[in-house]
What we know:
Blueprint: E1 2-6, H1 10-22, E2 26-30, H2 33-39, E3 46-50, H3 58-68, E4 74-78, H4 83-91, E5 96-99, H5 104-115, E6 120-122, E7 128-130, E8 135-137, E9 143-144, H6 148-159, E10 165-166, H7 167-174, H8 182-195, E11 201-203, E12 207-210
Parallel strand pairs: 1-2, 1-3, 3-4, 4-5
Antiparallel strand pairs: 6-7, 7-8, 8-9, 10-12, 11-12
Helix pairs in contact: 2-3, 6-8
Amino acid sequence: MKILLLEDNVSLSEIIKEMFEEKGLIVDWFKDGEEALYAIINGYDCFVLDINVPSLSGLNLLKEIRDRDKTTPAIIISSNIELETIQKAYVNGCNDFLKKPFYIYELECKVDLLCKNEKNINLCEGFSYNLKAEILYDKENNSVKLTHKEKRLLTLLCKTPNITVSLEVIEQYVWEGEIVGISGIRSLIKRVRLKICKEFIQTENYGYKLITNQMGS
Length: 217
C-alpha cells in the first residue's frame, strides 16, 4: 500500500514514516502542499494530510484530490479543532479527522480501518480478489500470478465495484504518474480478462467498470 503524507513537522513525519514503513508500506512524504499536489497523480491508496503547511493547505489539497478521486481514503491531522475547520474538512471529502497531538497508534488504526479491506471481492466464474493482500484466487482457491500493474488495476476496480473508473484515473493509479495512453490501458485490461473472464470488466465510453453483485468475507 502506498501513502501520501503531507506534514511539515519533520520530527512527527519521520515517526509516522518509520511506523508505516516497518509495516511494509510505501510512504511519500511532502512538507509543501503544492509539491504534494503535483504528486497526487502517482497512484496512492491513502492520503494523510496536515492542514497548515506551506504553499497549499491540506484542506485545499484535499479538495483538489476529490475533484479527481472520490474514493481513496483521506485522513486530516491537525491541531486546529475549530468547528468550522472540522466541518470544512468533511465537506472537502475527508474520511476521518485526527486531532494533534495524537498517539501514533491512533493513526495506524485509522489507516488500517479505512485503507485496508480484508474482504474478498467475488468476481466471475468462482474467482475472487483479496484487497488487503492483493491476491487473486481461482475457483479452487489457488492464487493466480499477477504482475504489479495487474494488481494495481484489480485493486482500483475492486475498490469501486459497479462504478465506471475513467481512463485518466486508471492511468494515474496503475502507472503511478507515467504516461501510457489508451493502447497501454487496453492491453492491460485484455491481459487481466484473459486471466479471469471477459465479462467482469465492462467497457464504458471513457473508462472501465468492474461488474460484481456481492462481496465475500
